[in-house]
Write a structure and sequence with these properties.
The complex is a heterodimer.
Chain A: H1 2-10, E1 15-22, E2 29-32, E3 39-41, H2 45-61, E4 65-69, H3 77-80, E5 86-93, E6 98-102, H4 106-117, E7 121-126, E8 142-145, H5 148-155, E9 164-167, H6 172-183, E10 189-192, H7 196-208, H8 214-217, E11 220-221, H9 233-249
Parallel strand pairs in A: 6-7, 6-9, 7-8, 9-10, 10-11
Antiparallel strand pairs in A: 1-2, 1-5, 2-3, 4-5
Helix pairs in contact in A: 4-9, 5-6
Chain B: H1 5-13, E1 18-27, E2 37-41, E3 46-48, H2 56-67, E4 74-79, E5 95-102
Antiparallel strand pairs in B: 1-2, 1-5, 2-3, 4-5
The chains are: A alpha/beta, B alpha+beta.
Chain lengths: 265, 105
């Protein structure tokens, strides 16, 4: 089973491993992957069926954690009362989150670098062939010469709430279709570079093409990044990535020293 | 786990037995999330980590005991509590539970 797990993790295909860690059959395993029959057993077909269902759910959410089951997959507190309980650890390996960066500018290489450190699969896209080259962005997983429209049309559906779109072009010709494309996806973070003035102008241009809905526009993080006083491309990359983390965790990003409560909350 | 695969595969290719320890649960402040893992081979070589360095050496001892047949695969808890103030713990005050098992599957 380890070989199968190994192969799926290496090839970045989604997979979850359920392991009995307490109760009957410690160490028993069930390997679960979308669209394939589970491998192994936790001890009973019913338990396997319920655990596989839960594992697919955890995989969908990119989470790992503990579940308690009865010997035949019982899960409700009433059903578990008085039965021997099996504690299972569901570990899920989801493909890495994506970051799409539009604009092959000075800030792009720094952002791509920091995004790689955080585990993103990074796509860099620019319509200008001389800028969007592998040589300038060796750290990116993919460098694409294209306008934003076709990229979103072709694979916008692969963006999900844990993915980020960063639009760094400053050029309305490119920004507007990129923002339009990003807003049509469920990407969890959409950041757009530029001053407050640039953003105001951009909002006008977006209105001209019919993007006026306040709920939609509220998704745009622009000017992009946390207020760290970042100046260099590297510092700006940190401020953008820090903002992505803070938006995901819902934190108001004070310094840890000035906040209260557990630091790993 | 992904970052451990190269070392694990290399060890297994030489016929060495391997134990893996995975964080399965944390309470309070914990440095690594469930799924953080380390692996230990029977020669005591280590790859990966499960905390900020607070409990790794204790995990190696547990893993070797399991590989030598002196302990079963099991959940091991690390963290401070009132009656356990001198046990190996996390400096951040949290509790982590690890499942340590032989990689024989």
């Amino acid at each position: 089973m380890y070989e199968q797990l190994n192969e799926r993790i290496r090839s970045e295909q989604p997979v979850a491993l359920v392991t009995v860690i307490e109760g009957a059959g410690i160490g028993s395993k069930l390997l679960v992957a979308p669209g394939a029959a589970p491998l192994g057993t936790l001890g009973s077909p019913e338990l396997d069926r319920i655990a596989a269902r839960d594992a697919l759910g955890e995989l969908e959410a990119g989470r790992s954690g503990i579940r308690h089951y009865g010997p035949n997959g019982e899960t409700t507190p009433e059903d578990l009362a008085g039965t021997p309980v099996v504690v299972a650890f569901i570990e899920s390996w989801a493909p890495p989150p994506q970051m799409w960066i539009f604009g092959a500018v000075d800030f792009t290489a720094a952002l791509a670098k920091v995004a790689k450190v955080l585990g993103y699969r990074v796509l860099v896209c620019d319509a200008r062939e001389i800028f969007a080259t592998r040589r300038r962005f060796p750290m990116a997983d993919e460098v694409l010469v294209s306008w934003p429209g076709p990229v979103f049309a072709e694979r916008g559906h692969t963006l999900a709430p844990r993915d980020a779109v960063c639009i760094l072009t400053h050029d309305p010709k490119f920004d507007v279709p990129a923002v339009q494309g990003a807003l049509a996806t469920t990407a969890g973070y959409i950041g757009v570079m530029g001053s407050r003035t640039t953003h105001a102008t951009r909002l006008q241009r977006l209105a001209e093409v019919g993007v006026t809905h306040a709920d939609q526009l509220a998704r745009l993080m622009s000017p992009i990044g946390l207020d760290l006083g970042a100046r260099t491309p590297e510092e700006t990359a940190i401020s953008i990535c820090a903002e992505i983390i803070a938006r995901r965790t819902g934190r108001a990003t004070p310094s840890l020293r000035d906040a209260v409560g557990p630091i790993h909350g | 786990m992904k970052e451990l695969l190269d070392d694990i595969d290399r060890w297994r290719a030489t016929g060495a037995r391997v134990a893996i320890a995975r964080v399965v649960d944390i309470e309070g402040s914990g440095p690594r999330l469930p799924g953080a893992a380390m692996a230990v081979n029977e020669a005591g070589e280590v790859t990966g980590s499960v905390s900020g360095g607070c409990v790794e050496s204790a995990v190696v001892a547990e893993a070797l005991a399991i590989l030598h047949g002196d302990a079963p695969a099991r959940v091991v808890t690390f963290g401070y509590s009132d009656d356990d103030a001198f046990a190996v713990g996390l400096t951040c005050g949290g509790i982590i539970r690890l499942f340590i098992e032989p990689l024989d599957w």
